[in-house]
Design the sequence.
């Protein structure tokens, strides 16, 4: 991306899809995007945390995060534990690459 003012980031929001989301993340990273949020929609799309792990393994600097989590269908402690699992896999550093929405 062209030069941007300090503190300005470019993010994209998408839906989680095994395989396709990782390829999309690689394209976004190569285009200079700063991050990708994947919608957490258990009833409509693939499991967001599995797909985030796949995206993290395919990219090196793109910041990732679940976007729009439904706290009726996903308990906050379950979402927290999933983030910890991503850290345990050492695919992301929660302080740097994984962002909570």
Sequence:
């Amino acid at each position: 991306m062209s030069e941007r003012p300090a503190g300005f980031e470019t993010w994209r929001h998408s839906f989680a899809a095994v395989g396709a989301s990782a390829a999309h993340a690689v394209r976004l990273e190569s285009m200079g995007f700063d991050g990708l949020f994947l919608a957490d929609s258990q009833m409509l799309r693939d499991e967001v945390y599995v797909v985030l792990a796949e995206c993290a393994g395919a990219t090196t600097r793109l910041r990732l995060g679940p976007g729009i989590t439904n706290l009726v269908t996903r308990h906050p402690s379950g979402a927290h534990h999933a983030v910890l699992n991503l850290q345990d896999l050492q695919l992301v550093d929660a302080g740097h690459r994984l962002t909570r929405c």
